[in-house]
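agent> step 3/5: call structure_predict on target 'TrmH family RNA methyltransferase' (Pedobacter africanus).
agent> reason: downstream docking stage needs a structural representation; sequence fetched in step 2, passing through unchanged.
tool.input:
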Amino acid sequence: MLSKSQINFIKSLHQKKYRKENGIFIIEGIKSIVEFIQSNYQVHSIYYLKQYQSLLPALPANIKLFEVNNAELDKISTLQTPQGVLALVNIPENPLLDTAALKNVFSLALDGVQDPGNMGTIIRTADWFGFKHIICSSNCVEVYNPKTVQATMGSLSRVNIYYEDLPAFLKHVELPVFGAVLNGTSMYKTKWGKEGLVILGNEGQGITPEVMKLISHPVTIPRIGQAESLNVAISAAILCADIVRNF
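tool.output (status=ok):
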């Protein structure tokens, strides 16, 4: 049985302030938890319903295990329908971005993406297409938001996320900078080459003027119908697919 202080501590991690203060975030679901166990992330503790114990892999001795009941899991879960297993994971320090790692590959850069679900879906999409790096502007949603973590479906454990002053970063990067805009060159006519950054903007405002000035290759997903715009995560998937197709 969990103590009241344990329950209160885990519930506090639903909020960004306490995740940052304690350096811990929450993941839920056996599949995602197994992927984090097998990654470079440090899993702090696991809370599971008895019937899920057999699904857990062999664990390092430093991971604390707690069997909980349904009522306790309901209290600590961030989900309306808990998935039977919840884990606390240590937040790594914001990694230093070695620009050499961006050479000869494509990476995504996000300018003010605010929706946690969109952020998580973009991370999952990047993982699917083999994009290893995502550079986020400082005003992007926190990647350890529970909704973001859940939407990545474990892909967060494999994609490197960096938070940077995006305009300052772009001024010093020696790579082609592609930007998803409404009035650029059709992606079907774009010569992607073998490396570059692909910038996606805020859900409502798009790419900021400061970042727009630093785009060398404005790119458009051609519109056939009457929709005013595309969801940013959908745009990321379409552009990633076209880039990979042209490798």
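agent> step 4/5: record observation. Strands lie at 24-28, 43-48, 64-67, 85-90, 106-111, 133-137, 160-164, 177-186, 196-201, 217-220.
agent> proceeding.
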